[in-house]
Amino acid sequence: MKDSASRSFGNRVNKEKVVKPLWFVCSIALFVSPLKAQEQKDAAVTQLLSTTATSSGQSIVLPKNDAQIVASIYEGLPSAALQAHNHPYPRYVFVLSGTLRVNNLDTGQTNTYRPGNFVLESVGQWQTNASVGDEPLKLLVVDVVEKGQPNIVTLR
Q1: What residues have CB less than 8 Å from 12, skipping those under 6 apart?
Q2: Which of 103, 133, 146, 155 would give a disulfide with 99, using CB separation of 3.0 to 4.6 Å?
Q3: Sheet holding 153-154, edge to edge
Q4: 82 near 129, Cβ under 8 Å?
């Protein structure tokens, strides 16, 4: 059995093994922190949306198999309209220019989106979309689909 002096010496040695690397890491962190702060002054992140639901209040559900991201730019003339349709998978839309009006035929809800708005369209609910106003409509559209599947179903 070790006496208290040898236990104390062993604890001191173990503490030194921990404290030296810890001191080194803290010193590096203090040196790097001002550099990190400088980098952040040159760029900014602006959160556009944080949500757990679509525009009609549905929970966000992603494809169960082989998800595929499809990003597109949609451009429409003033007064352009899409016939009744739905999206079987999540669709995310960022309005770049113009004004988008979405009429959800299932809920009766109508929403209008302007430049800088970000929307998660409803899934599996019928809707019509229109460009309203005098300015052409330009949207960044991101679909999350099962690989190879379309994300628009139209009424026939």
Answers
A1: none
A2: 133
A3: 110-113, 99-104, 127-132, 81-86, 153-154
A4: yes
